[in-house]
């Protein structure tokens, strides 16, 4: 048995965050549970950076990464959505349960597909599992009033978001649509810099800039807003693809 490499340890930290999130959510500690998923995403970024710094990943690391992502960005966000929706009538819970199933099933299929698809080395085909998971935990955080700045615009937008996601039909439809996007062939940027300069990284740098501005203005609401911007990047990013 070989000693674990640094990327594997970082992936394990990602997994630990996901497990802890589920345990805390089961005790009603949704705020901490959701922020742990953002910490898991940080570890997910670092394990990729560490793997590239050490000359590339390993087959074991790739499988471990997918298993950790399934827990942290599939099961844990889905469970947080379930816990947040628990007070709704029993008939509505069937729709929420279907939404939770969509999140988990789409995440599993997406990760399995990514592992065997050699076309996704420089970009994604379909929405990545971590992006979907962060979207759902941000919705839960908005629901519990965490991560919102003290300005009227943010609280008004949060109120509209909560009204929309208070409808179990809306939750199911959005989960289904995002699940379809995860398994789609839509080309999306992987957010990995291709070089040190602006050329070739225009879409990534613009997304980073937009994300910073949205975070300053709207706090946690920046996550769903940035996801929409990201999903639309194949359209508004076309002029940059033509020049690279």
What features would you highlight for this structure?
globular, 244 residues, Four Helix Bundle (Hemerythrin (Met), subunit A)
Instruction: Identify the overall geometry.
Output: globular
Q: Count the strands? A: 2
- Low-pLDDT sequence parts: none
Tell me the strand order in the biggest sheet: 1-2
Cα radius of gyration in angstroms: 18 Å
Instruction: Output mean pLDDT.
Output: 87
CATH architecture label: Up-down Bundle
Biggest pleated-sheet summary = 2 strands, antiparallel
Helix content: over 70%
Under CATH, the topology can be stated as Four Helix Bundle (Hemerythrin (Met), subunit A)
Helix/strand/pairing category: mainly alpha
Instruction: Kindly estimate the percentage of residues that lie in beta strands according to DSSP.
Output: under 5%
Termini Cα gap: 45 Å
**Number of separate structural domains:** 1
Number of helices: 11
* SSE ordering: HHHHEHHHEHHHH
Q: What is the class in the CATH system?
A: Mainly Alpha
Describe this structure in words.
With 244 residues, the chain is mostly helical. The protein has eleven helices and two strands, in the order ααααβαααβαααα. It has a single domain (6-243), classed as Four Helix Bundle (Hemerythrin (Met), subunit A), CATH 1.20.120. The chain has helices spanning 6-26, 30-53, 59-85, 90-116, 129-144, 152-165, 168-182, 202-218, 222-231, 233-236, 238-243; strands at 123-125, 187-189. Helix 1 (6-26) runs parallel beside helix 3 (59-85). The chain is globular. 36% of the residues are buried. The mean pLDDT is 87.
